[in-house]
Amino acid sequence: MNAPALFSTMAALLVLSTLAQAQEAQRFEVAAWVDHFDFAYIPRDGVALFDTETAEGNSKVLDHVQEVGATTILWRNCAGSTMRYQSKVESHHQDAPLDKRRVPDSRPMWGWMRYGEAEPDILGSAMEMCRERGLRRGVHWPFEETHWAIWTIGEWNMEHPQFWGRTADGQPWWGRVSLGHPEAVEHKLALVDELLERGIETLYIDTWRNGGWSPAYEYVDPVVAAFERQYGQAPPASPADPRWCRHVAGYVTDFLRKVRARLDASGRKIDLMVGVQDIAPIDEEVALRRGIDWTAWVDEGIIDTLVVINVRWDAGDPFGSTRTLYREVLDRVSGRCRVLLPVQAYDFSHLGMPSYQKATELGQDEVAGRLMRMAWEEGADGVSLECVDYNNYSEATRAALRALAEGECRWVQAN
Amino acid sequence: MRALCDLVVIPLCMGLGAGLCAQPLQLTSGPGDHTEAAWSPDGSCIAFQLAAEGDHRLCLLDVAGGQVTVLVDGPGHALYPAWSPDGRWIVYCHQNITTTAVQGIENGANLLVVSAAGGEPRRLTSGLCRDYVPCFSRDGESILFSSSRGSKQPSVGLYSVPFAGGEPREMILEDSQDVAFVEPAVSPDGRFIAHGFIAGFRSNWAVRLARATDPTQAFSLTEPSSSCTSPAWSPDGRWIACTGYRPGDEGWGIYVISLPDGGMARLQTGPGNSRSPAWSPDGDSLVFENNRSGGYQLYSMPFVAPTIVAEETGAEVQEAAGAVVHYSFARAPGETLEDLSGTGNAGTMTGEPDFGEGAVAFDSGGSIDVAAPRGLDFGTGPFTVAAEITVAGHTETLRIIAVAKYPESPLGWQLYLNEEGQLWFNSRTPENLYVGARSDFRLPEGKRLSVLGYRDRSGKVSLVIDGTLQQSTGTGAMLSYPDAELLRLGRQYNGSYVAEGVLVHEFEVRPGVPGRRERISRHLQEFLNP
Hints:
The complex is a heterodimer of chains A (415) and B (530).
Chain A: H1 3-25, E1 29-34, E2 43-44, E3 47-48, H2 55-65, E4 72-76, E5 78-79, E6 82-83, H3 122-132, E7 136-141, H4 155-159, E8 164-166, E9 172-177, H5 182-197, E10 202-206, H6 221-231, H7 242-265, E11 271-276, H8 294-300, E12 305-308, H9 318-333, E13 338-342, H10 353-360, H11 364-377, E14 382-385, H12 395-406
Parallel strand pairs in A: 1-4, 1-14, 4-7, 7-10, 10-11, 11-12, 12-13, 13-14
Antiparallel strand pairs in A: 2-3, 5-6, 8-9
Chain B: E1 2-3, E2 8-9, E3 25-26, E4 28-29, E5 34-39, E6 45-52, E7 55-62, E8 68-72, E9 77-83, E10 89-95, E11 109-115, E12 122-123, E13 131-136, E14 142-147, E15 155-162, E16 169-172, E17 179-186, E18 192-199, E19 206-211, E20 218-220, E21 227-233, E22 239-245, E23 253-258, E24 264-266, E25 274-279, E26 285-290, E27 297-302, E28 325-328, E29 336-337, E30 347-350, E31 354-356, E32 359-361, E33 367-371, E34 383-391, E35 399-406, E36 409-417, E37 422-428, E38 434-442, E39 448-455, E40 461-465, E41 468-469, E42 486-489, E43 502-511, H1 516-528
Parallel strand pairs in B: 15-17
Antiparallel strand pairs in B: 1-8, 2-4, 3-27, 5-6, 6-7, 7-8, 9-10, 10-11, 11-12, 13-14, 14-15, 15-16, 17-18, 18-19, 19-20, 21-22, 22-23, 23-24, 25-26, 26-27, 28-43, 29-30, 30-33, 31-32, 32-43, 33-42, 34-39, 34-43, 35-36, 35-42, 36-37, 37-38, 39-40, 40-41
């Protein structure tokens, strides 16, 4: 090969390489939420399929999850305020009865998991496995997900009653600490540091599973005092009062600013994802009643990715109304952050795939395919799969999603 | 048993137990958390647990000399030591799990007994469950403990097992999500068990008294607005010390509850969290754990009975005020019903309410009315409606026991039974919206109950039944009450919702709200001395 030909070839390779990189940067993301705890007791012939206290067992969990064509793993790090790795600043779900204030999880298998003592560290090894497999590695951090059991309430909460949330009638509740207390925020940030130490590329905060950001529990002294300073009167007794909700939402937004700063201070590029559920037409401010002002996060550039957990679609026109809401979110975001739209297996709000199936009489694989394709067509940056537990997405659905992820929907639609 | 070398022991002051130390005295210092102190019956020794190197070991602190020795070492967790009455044995909880759950676990956390002089522990319970926070019965023949054995839900019951060995026996278990009976402590006379209790993860821990012969019969000593655990009886049975928190506290503290009146006070234990109190055998001192220095260390302080004056906080400050309506149905009235309050709110009979057996019944559709009653013009202030009632039988209809009608608010406040047989008390918002508090349970039939509904000065609406504050409350009830148009007992102001199957023995309305001690004192005394 002569010199000009060699030059031409190299130039062409360079262009192709650049193009490939550009395309790689726009890979349509398939973000799989993984709660390995939900794989902990899948019996087959009397034997559990996954030993989630070992790296080998969690490797098998990832094998299963990857069948959906996942590009990103959002690995659950906690149950409420109890951690599922070797945390130095929080307790672990198996700590009962080491802490007599906790009511133990009595279930035969789940109640005896010791993720806080497992070697190697569960979270660190999961992140490393993701790296080895070329998966974007993230943590799903639904902190204070205390909406279902005392064993999910962490030691830090138990040790700091003075920071507990409080209702309008003055009743304290140990299931949450208020972000109105700087000490509580610092504690959460210390947990962020622990997650960073384990090699995450993405921190995904789920604002649905927190049991706590409800304005109903924010009648704590500093939040009340700030309201009184601003409005010259005591807060309304109704936690649904719009002024009160907006006031409380300010603390959540401020917390996310601090998380953003903490991630940036790591010196690495760490994506901050935040999930918002039950998105309705934006002017209805449904999210705000939970203390969530997601449009402010987008406007201010605090978050890298908005995860839409679900939208309030209309059973009379399931896919049409879904598309309308998808467009509204994407228009509102207008490219200022990435947006992942839902292909949700869970149905706790009757807005997930089981409800679509009921409304349309389509199979799960068909619904999943339509939702994923719709997200791609509308120009979303990817989809969010909540949650890829064992067979939550059926074999046919996993195949359908993977085919789309590696085929038609491989790249984000150019606007 | 070996001496513990890595623990710095601070010599005890001569005054320990003699009431001479005004401030808490630090008993231990060194690495790890030192917690769950238990004083030996002869007062010579304090057992405690020490968290070190990922395990928990049991240690003994010699009170006179200050030496610490290890009684039970790792591996694993040795927790919650409790002495036998003769001081020869210590029962504790032990957990040492070395495999994954999938690989199989034989035993969970179970009870072991070890000689206080050291030696090989003896296993008392076994199985994949959590047996913990044990205590000896007063005769030393059996051990009471909390356990998840028998639970399908995340719940914890109370059990007992013979000291000599044998099968554990269930004492009480409510196998519902997050219902737990923990840390039993037997009263000095053996008649009662104090224990921590919670029912649902939205609740706070409470300290309850239960009858030893029937733990289902219980009385809550603390209320939902506080979180209290770890009860410990004083040797004379006049006090219960516990770990507690109330809004406004800086953290956990040591509270004492006086018996039989139920007065409650927080002891001054200095900065940091103070938890898990234990009495000296002579009752002169308390030992507890405190984290002012970082980790938890043991401290002691002399116990000086506090003067409990005004323990209530915030809007629930007791406001002494006389009744403005008071009816007693102990005797059948004449043509009118005398108002014992002296306010002049004599009741008139509409229809034919039935009098008899010390009560009035309204099954016939009659009622007791007071037109333009005096003294019910509470403005935005607090007020209380109290009654002694018996539900003779439940119906499936709404039943109004009492209602006060105001010009702009015909349902101004009400005391009533709903279709499910739960009792409600309601007030209203300035916009005249309903705000109510509901009983935790369907009222039992045939049992005379003392009920008390009130609105405090913050607009919170609460309901108390037989001295127990109910979980459900309402807020925002700041309606300004003018002069009332009508007070009626037995049915709605318009004649509907007749209180069928309800007997009313006493009825009273007064401005102000009762303090906690006033609410519980009489009922606690009745519980203690039926």
